Amino acid sequence: MKYSITNSFDTPQEAFEKGRGYCWHQAKVLNKILIELGFNSRLVHAYKNLFPEVELENTIVKDFVTGHVWCRVTIDRVEKDVCPGNEKNTPGVTNFKPIGKVYEWNSRIDLLTYYGAALVNYFRGKKYIKKNTKKHEK
User: Fold this and answer.
1) What is the pTM of this model?
2) Which one of 20, 66, 82, 83 is CB 3.0 to 4.6 Å from 4, fit for a cystine?
3) Sign of CA dihedral 43, 66, 99, 62
4) What is the mean pLDDT of the chain?
5) What secondary structure does DSSP assign to 9-62, as a single string?
6) CA dist 5 → 9, 91, 104 (Å)
7) Which residues face 97 on adjacent strands?
8) CA distance 132 to 137
9) pLDDT at 23
10) Shortest CA distance to 121 belongs to which of 64, 66, 84, 82?
């Protein structure tokens, strides 16, 4: 599933069917798949995570701090962070670093993420999609 901020109000299943979604969509789908395959997987999140340079809606974004959701999976009795947000990620190796406390996922954060991330993604979209559109208009 390609990372996208343009379909924030989709459910994870809808985002999966479209092939695009943000971290909440990606992690929830992966978590469900891992559990159905018999893995011990759970969702976690942190409000502050440091990400390296990434491409967001065809715009390069330098190192930034943002909230993030990912899976913690127990493999051979070892718990590893598993994140589908970057194709180079592998179990235990991710492209981001939590710089704040990591919390267990719960229904309150599920609701906050659904609406809060949609708001954040709206402003990110205004900034990056508009910027990208201006580049292509020149």
Assistant:
1) 0.82
2) 20
3) positive
4) 87
5) TS-HHHHHHHTEE-HHHHHHHHHHHHHHTT-EEEEEEEEEEEE-SEEETTEEE-
6) 10, 24, 23
7) 50
8) 9
9) 93
10) 66
Which pairing describes strands 40-51 and 97-98: parallel, antiparallel, or unpaired? antiparallel
Q: Is the distance from CB of 28 to CB of 42 less than 8 angstroms?
A: no
Number of H helices, E strands in the chain: 3, 9
40 Cβ contact partners less than 8 Å away, ≥ 6 residues apart: 73, 74
The residues spanned by each domain of the chain are 2-137
Give the Cα-Cα-Cα angle 69, 75, 79 (nearest 5 degrees).
50
Residue 30 main-chain phi, psi, to 5 deg: -60, -45
